[in-house]
Amino acid sequence: MLPRIGILMGGRSAEREVSLRTGEAIYNALLQKGYDVVKIDVDEQIVDNLRREKVGLAFLALHGPGGEDGTIQGLLEILNIPYTGPGVLSSAVCMDKTTTKKLLVYEGLPTPRFIVVRRREYQEAGLNGVLQRMTGMVPLPAVVKAPRQGSTIGVTFVREQALLPVALEEAFRYGDDALIEEMIDGVEVTAAVMGDEQPVALPLIEIVSRTGYYDYQAKYTAGLSDHIMPPRLPADVQQELKRLAEKVYAVLELRGVIRVDFMVSRAEHRPYILEVNTIPGMTETSLVPDAARAAGMEFADLVEKLALSAWRSK
């Protein structure tokens, strides 16, 4: 039997609301399975709260900085409390989209072309300096991202040059650098992977947003996006996506369930890895629960399996 499970949720990131919804769903699933479980809203008293509640296993339902970036994982390591999801280093790497992409390039894995623009560089060189760096590397249209946020927070889709300064300033709201990435015209597909030592990709999901972009609103508003299973792609392309997702899981030394997001170009059906989510959302509109259900695993069973896996690997 597992010890008391603490659902770590909320926190102070821009994804707090989503985290609370994820945590509530996980809490209810574990209650349904008969476990001793408590919800803990992460704040400055987190150490005292963990000790007071006698938490023996942490189920991480946090999103964004302070939850997916290795900081809470490091704290739990110090407290000797096992937890769900990847460890300190893997969490920190995957939370930073720029670092993730550099490692993907090193491993020979496909990802859209990109440059990184520092705030100070932009202030000194101006827009012309950024455009010069983009020339021959990242043409418009492009995607400008705050590299250490999730849920498409700080992301702007830029189709014309005049919108680039606005997009950069939006990214700089969340940090001192901005990731400018080639925009791939294609089909958006996500692959959930789980299995620890022997990772296996769950059924793929094609994402179609009714707003035109799979942004924060489309992700978390019921009815604004469709999850299509299986994706409307050739079988060999689907197999390659699963292979790539499992490869990402292995080379980044991930644990638990993660999600790899892809764009597949319309013209060539070529896959591009966009990013890796180490604590995927578990809300009623989230992708991982849909993929698990397609694999024959109900939500409560998925949550229980993740908790048991974390406890076994302690």
3D architecture notes:
The chain is α+β, with helices and mostly antiparallel strands and 314 residues long. Helices cover 38% and strands 21% of the residues. The protein folds into 3 domains: 5-84, Rossmann fold, CATH 3.40.50; 94-110 and 184-312, D-amino Acid Aminotransferase, Chain A, domain 1 (2-Layer Sandwich), CATH 3.30.470; 114-182, ATP-grasp fold, A domain (Dna Ligase, domain 1), CATH 3.30.1490.20. The strands form 3 sheets. Strands 8, 9, 10, 11, 12 and 13 form a 6-stranded antiparallel sheet that branches. It has a 4-stranded antiparallel sheet with strand order 4-7-5-6. Strands 2-1-3 form a 3-stranded parallel sheet, with helices on both faces. Helix 1 packs across helix 11. 44% of the residues are buried.
